[in-house]
Amino acid sequence: MKVSIFDVAKKSGLSVVTVSRVLNGAESVREKNRQKVLDAIKELDYRPNAAARSLASGKTGIIGLVVTTLHDSFFDAVVKELNEVLALHGYFLAIAISRGIESDEDHYLIQEDRVDGMILLSPIGEENYIMQLKRRGIPYVLIDNQEPENDTYSITIDNFKGGYAAASHLLELGHTSIAHLCGHEMFRSTRERRNGFALALQEKGITPFEIVQGDFEIEFGYDTCKRWLSEGQLPTAVFTGDDNIALGVINALMEAGISVPEQVAVVGYDDHYIASQLRPHLSTLRQPADKIAQAAADMLLRRISGKMKRGSGIRIDPELIIRESTVSI
């Protein structure tokens, strides 16, 4: 039997009007009641009739998402959360994996009448996207964007705070020889994490063992650590720009018979699924994909409905997760 809006109202203990307001992104609903409705929708697996809503509203019922890759567990987690949250509001998520605004996939999504709104996840060349979207009058939200001047409609992680927290944790454990392996310079997250790391050490009057730039890949961590081993010099702690790099470092250390964390402590970033499966379990900075997706969806729905009159970016704090790679078992 098909679930109706009346079933959702009964399950949540609220009125049909309140359920309708939640589905339409109204800001007047109390957060507690909004959550009750979303929980009921999820439990009942309620799906609003997208076709009927599109006819009534003159909208497509489609949200476009542009992402540069899905070979990243953090991106993957954000996309899954976005898909789920937007589905609760009767929207279909159309995904384009692209490297630039000139690609066919992006051009198709951004054409007039194709989508009701766009989400750009860690975009490269975001200025070009924004110019096109503004010209066509398409509401948009950025996630993990590269340029601070575009933070008006964005959801970002405080990566500076994350880098600072990682370094501070290692300093509190007594480490003074600390290396940082960071990602590509084009990414704002790379620069912010490195700057936070550097400030924490600077405040203690400590010079980094080494700061090395590379790709967010296992090979980068592995090759860099192998070089340290061949040179006969190892830091006592390493902060890596993501968990893939950390995995490479740990693999090289384990191959050489170097104990983690007794001889070298390691902190990653992202809290990929693999972080809690490694041996030793990886200490890392968690980026809350659920909070990021919810915030992005809420902002975009408010823009689409015209309820967001003034832009205001949202900055979300990462969370330090301490596991075995920095604390002895």
TrEMBL record:
Instruction: Please name the source species.
Output: Paenibacillus agri
Note the InterPro entries from the entry.
HTH_LacI, LacI/GalR-like_sensor, Lambda_DNA-bd_dom_sf, Peripla_BP_I
The chain positions of domain HTH lacI-type read: 3-57
Record's protein name: LacI family DNA-binding transcriptional regulator
Q: Which UniProt keywords apply?
A: DNA-binding, Transcription, Transcription regulation
Q: Which PROSITE patterns match?
A: HTH_LACI_2
UniProt cross-references to PANTHER family, sorted A to Z: HTH-TYPE TRANSCRIPTIONAL REGULATOR GALS, LACI-RELATED TRANSCRIPTIONAL REPRESSOR
Specify the domain of life of the species encoding this protein: Bacteria
One Pfam annotation reads Peripla_BP_3
The upper taxonomy is:
Bacteria, Bacillati, Bacillota, Bacilli, Bacillales
Decide whether keyword Transcription is in the record: yes
Q: What GO terms are given for molecular function?
A: DNA-binding transcription factor activity; transcription cis-regulatory region binding
